[in-house]
Amino acid sequence: MADILTPALGESVSEASIAKWTKKVGDAVKKDEVLVELETDKVSLEVVAPADGVLAAINAAEGDTVVPGTVLGSVSEGASAPAAAPAAAAAPAAAAPAAASASVEIAVPTMGESVAEGSIGTWLKKSGDTVAKDELLVEIETDKVAVEVSAPAAGVLTIIADNGATVTPGQVIGSVSASGAAAAPAAAAPAAAPANTGTAQAPASAHLSPAVQRVVSENNLNPASLSASGPKGNITKADAIAAIGAAAPAAPKASAPVAPRADQPREERVKMTRLRQTIARRLKESQNTAAQLTTFNEVDMTNVMALRAQYKEVFEKRHGVKLGFMSFFTKAVVQALHELPAVNAEIDGTDIIYKNHYDIGVAVGTDKGLVVPVLRDADTLSLAGIEKGIGALGKAARDGALTMDQMQGGTFTITNGGTYGSLMSTPILNAPQSGILGMHNIVQRPMAINGEVKIRPMMYLALSYDHRIVDGKEAVTFLVRIKELLEDPARALLDL
Asked: Mean pLDDT throughout 246-262?
């Protein structure tokens, strides 16, 4: 008997919940076959069979909370061996029919690091249809990417997983039978010729993925007129988007027929992605745990903007990266954290853990949701190093390629709502951190300068902090220190 154990869940992750068992008690399993999926507040994990045999017991049901080392179930080793004998005996008798109707399985491909499952989109063919090798069959959607699945061989399609079904990497979702594959194309060949003479659009539309179909339908594009740059002559989403600009002059003619409002659904119910569920859960847990308070200040960005304008071209030529405001803010934050260590600490039970390293989380908005990758050892980086690091993390976040190591272990977070036009906000702490700095939009405002009213580029700053560990005096001092360093950038260079 081999136990199925909950694996280590990663740094600062103490528990997980059972998402789904892929087998039931009594099913035969193979060693390293995925048996159960676990969800943490950061990623999904797969637990595999420790040995060949039969799933003898399930100790934790779907939805239960488990910790590392918990026995989830057990596998009776070798219990499937007797069942194999009859199958082996029957194999010679079945060999002839099998050879006559050999089929190739259609399996879910790997969907990216830390992506444990996806949902079947719309099948472009139905069971019984004849398909060609490498013809696009279906698109699988995950919380990060969309993966296209093509026919592994020519033949007749059989669909196992229906539209909308949840699937995992390696799962068989259908098959292509070689029986009749040779005859079907031959019989279809005469019919194909007149079909092509009638319309050139039908074959093109048959190979459009759901993502491409959406772009084509929303922009009234003709698939037959699109250039195809994808494999096997398929039209990609990029091809469709490129055609939108070319068709722009004709848009007014196409916009005449407008569907009446009554034809559109007034409500639409969509299941939250796993990433969005995790974001919602963690933000609410942060509010429920910490004594959150926000203090505000404003900073005159005149000197930083002048410095950036003076050196941005030389900076980009020298370092190969643009000089932005985030590097100045990161430098100011690190120096303020040096002086006020409580803001760089966290609470663990009845202990306070003071961090002597400065790993700054940078909030990045993606089309899937908000993620916070971590810039390691920011105190050792130059302005150029900070800009390069933030740029690389932002690209990885938008591409859905962030790793677990890049997402955990931060000591303080910076979020910039100003990129979207936010004037002021009260950011929520990124637990278990004790502080988060909110940057906002730079707005020209009249300010009193030495008794005179002058127009200055001003930005509101917001510091949300955990009042259990950071006192009001420390929080205000921290924010004032950042203001001083930004309004007089020479202070940072002179360590004043």
From this structure: 53
Q: Is the Cβ–Cβ distance between 320 and 373 less than 8 Å?
A: no
Question: Which tokens sit at 453?
Answer: 């009213």
Sign of CA dihedral 255, 259, 261, 266: negative
CA dist 340 and 275 (Å) reads 33
Question: Which of the residues 27, 348, 399, 471 is marked catalytic?
Answer: 471
pTM of the model: 0.51
Mean pLDDT in residue range 242-264? 57
User: With left for phi above 0 and alpha for psi between -120 and 50, is residue 332 left, alpha or beta?
Assistant: alpha
Closest CA to 489 of 248, 302, 221, 212: 302
Q: Where are the beta strands (DSSP E) in 41-101?
A: 44-48, 53-58, 65-66, 71-77
Which DSSP state fits 257? S
Asked whether the predicted pLDDT for residue 218 surpasses 80, the reply is no
Active site residue 467: yes
User: Does residue 230 contact residue 239 with C-beta atoms inside 8 Å?
Assistant: yes
Residue 412's closest CA among 368, 482, 360? Answer: 360
**310-333 confidence digits (pLDDT tens):** 999 999 999 999 999 999 999 999
State residue 248's pLDDT score: 52
Answer whether 35's CB lies under 8 Å from 272's CB: no
The Cα-based distances of 444 to 168, 423, 455 in angstroms read: 52, 12, 6
120-152: pLDDT as tens digits = 878 888 888 888 888 888 888 776 566 788 888
Structure tokens at 208: 């459009």
Query: Does the pLDDT at position 188 exceed 50?
Result: no
Q: Is 471 a catalytic residue?
A: yes
The predicted pLDDT at position 184 comes to 40
Phi, psi (5° rounding) for residue 359?
-105, 110
Confidence of residue 356 (pLDDT cuts 50, 70, 90): very high
3-state secondary structure of 486: helix
Share of the chain above pLDDT 90, in %: 32
Is the Cα torsion angle 286, 290, 296, 301 positive or negative in sign?
negative
Radius of gyration of the chain (CA): 29
Q: Are 37 and 22 in contact (CB under 8 A)?
A: yes
- 318 CB burial (10 A radius; 0-12, 13-18, 19+): exposed
Query: Which listed residue (134, 379, 467, 488) is catalytic?
Result: 467
Tell me the C-alpha distance between 235 and 244, whole Å.
14
Q: How far apart are CA 85 and CA 83, in angstroms?
A: 6
pLDDT at 93 over 80: no
Strands of 342-381, DSSP E: 345-348, 351-354, 360-362, 364-366, 369-371, 374-375
